[in-house]
């Protein structure tokens, strides 16, 4: 069975036996916050459990490295939608130790792309079109700095309302949270 068939077969059973009932909720978060975190596999279940959040409690936005890399990209738009349209009142940026984006080297990934059939020409055409692929793909060195940077980007965004923006780092094995930026503290 392919992965897709497996998913569809399970899904059929899930719906037929009404397993969705225990997840019934609304689109508004019970705990009025939006979390920006990483797509890391270890955080799929661990993060909600470690923060005591359940279906219906929060808005969650996931992206590699929990990075806000563009002030007018879809990550920032999601956060704004959560705050203005979906009743979230606080933002939590949660990076994690041992992140795939930590120390990620853009050149190594570009080499990988070439091995997988992306031509040198494509890469240089993009570079000549003003797209800086290297800095776009570049990871970060220290997760605490990267979280603080994302918090700063959100806090100083021209369209952000006056809400607390917190920064934290989670341990992907134990779920332990360390505070990097307390959004309640006035600067
Ligand atoms: Zn990560």
From TrEMBL:
Cofactor(s) needed for function = Zn(2+)
Per its UniProt entry, what is the enzyme's top EC class, as one word? lyase
How the cofactor is bound: the record states:
Binds 1 zinc ion per subunit.
- Could you cite one Gene Ontology molecular function of this protein? carbonate dehydratase activity
The UniProt keyword set, sorted, is: Metal-binding, Zinc
Q: Which reaction(s) are listed as its catalytic activity?
A: hydrogencarbonate + H(+) = CO2 + H2O
Which CDD domains does the UniProt record give?
Answer: beta_CA_cladeD
**Gene3D superfamilies in the record:** Carbonic anhydrase
For the ligand (Zn(2+)), the binding residues are: 38, 40, 96, 99
**InterPro entries, alphabetized:** Carbonic_anhydrase, Carbonic_anhydrase_sf
Q: Work out whether the entry's keyword set contains Metal-binding.
A: yes
Record's protein name: carbonic anhydrase
